[in-house]
Design goal:
Elements: H1 6-15, H2 36-50, H3 67-75
């Protein structure tokens, strides 16, 4: 696992303690690891990690669906 995604995985596991493994391509929204109530908190976590505010009107929810997509769109060097 990439070190950049570890805080995201930790956040997801904290909120979903029954989930042991989170594959890179698991749909986090469809599998309810991120729900509508936690989405804004999740966005705030990402903003803290990347050091900038995300413009929600300029991004696609699909960018948040998998760990792979999160890494690609937000957490790569």
């Amino acid at each position: 696992m990439d070190d950049a995604i570890k805080p995201v995985v930790d956040w997801l596991r904290e909120r979903n303690p029954t989930v042991k493994e989170i594959p890179e391509d698991l749909d986090l929204i469809e599998n309810r690891l991120i729900d509508s109530l936690g989405f804004i908190e999740f966005v705030l976590l990402l903003e803290d990690l990347i050091g900038r505010e995300l413009q929600l009107d300029q991004i696609d929810v699909d960018q948040f669906r998998t760990l792979r997509s999160l890494t690609h769109h937000f957490l790569r060097g």
